[in-house]
Amino acid sequence: MKIHCRVKLGRQRLGTFLTDVLMNEILHGADGTSIKCGVIGEIGCSWPLTESEKKVLQATAHAQAQLGCPVIIHPGRSSRAPFQIIRILQEAGADISKTVMSHLDRTILDKKELLEFAQLGCYLEYDLFGTELLHYQLCPDIDMPDDNKRIRRVRLLVEEGYEDRILVAHDIHTKTRLMKYGGHGYSHILTNVVPKMLLRGITENVLDKILIENPKQWLTFK
Predict the structure, then answer these.
(1) What is the number of structural domains in the chain?
(2) Structural domain of residue 25, as residue ranges?
(3) Exposed e or buried b for every residue in 149-177, given b needs 16+ CB within 10 A?
(4) Rounded Cα gap, residues 218 and 160, in angstroms
(5) Which residue numbers in the chain have pLDDT < 70?
(6) Which runs of consecutive H residues, i.e. helices, occur in 28-97?
(7) Is 124 helix (H, G, I), strand (E, B) or coil?
(8) From the CA atom positions of the chain, what is the Rg in Å?
């Protein structure tokens, strides 16, 4: 019993410590500087979740509940991962309406499953625009969609009434994605994707929500 109590107390202290770290970096500054973080994340999660990752998610929820800050999640490479993550956050008191689930392009590929997940109320982010791969090295079982399919998914979500919950991005994380090295660059969405969205029936008013209003609402502290 004593051993069990000590382990439980140690876990509670760890959770409190992690929460304090997150809150301090938002309220006072990161890594001993005065530079304050504007969001918590991107919270990296694997599949299946490790115990450490669960503790970080719980600490994130506790910090967000106190600060009203935006959160963004990197889910594991399984269609079940986003559901599990949202459940853990909800149980720990997070504000799901201020939470982004990123990388849905490569995570929830089934339409029915996507619409089921959309009902949970978080932001739905398609953030791999410009990434079109035959072989997705990090998870070969996944057929990475091209930008046309991403646009169709965004349109589906709009048609189903989720236009206030959609975000888009490029996730540019390698040199080869930059124009200098032959990639699409940071202008790809505005230069190439938006015109195609307009052709596919996504209106300018909806695009203003996706590109301007939704990010603004997410990034604003409650």
Answers:
(1) 2
(2) 1-101
(3) ebbebbbebbeeebbebbbbbbbbeeeeb
(4) 20
(5) 1-12
(6) 51-67, 81-91
(7) strand
(8) 19
